Amino acid sequence: MGRLGKILLLLSFVGYPVLLHAFILKGDEVEMWQLMFVFAPLLAAAAWVVFRMVGKIWWPVLTLLFAAALYYIATGDHGRIGLLAVNGLSNATLNLFLLWLFGRTLLRGREPLISQISRHINGELKVEVAAYTRNVTIAWCTFFALEVIVSLLLYTLAPLAAWSFFINVLNLPLLIFMFVGEKAYRTVRFPNHPKTSILKAIEVYSKDFAAPKKADSGR
Question: Which end of the chain is less enclosed by CB atoms within 10 A, N or C?
């Protein structure tokens, strides 16, 4: 991907939640094309995941179901409800999935996710580094859990604008603050430890952990 493509991707990544927040603030004045703009990327992502999980024979049926869902939530009185539902559920689902992804590695007999990534990049970990990476995994679990809890509390107790601002506009800055804060603390705590970038960690995870595992030969 060229520099222009990366810039456009970054702008869309940052601008989409801001526009989504603006549409929510408009209330019942949201128009059909604006709802289509909001729902299309989310449904496209969901469709991509679902289509990869089922056989091609089911694709026409799934296409009709997604089209019907899009028409239902984006027309009439359902548009406003659908906008809030898709926005809130997508945010909560993502954070709960990440909480599960990190949290399951904290169970007895398993290696914490951050420890796994660090070991695959830097080799065997010292005792203090292993303890630290476990605590970082716990910190990320806490972060994802708080995202869901605060979102639920704001939706229940605060104005709708405050809830939308938190899950849309503040979501990315809070994530960046978490990354930068952890990296700064790690640099001070372990000045001689090899530096690891976020992109490198994502690359290692996607290659070594997200790839399908082969069945054991004994099975």
Answer: C
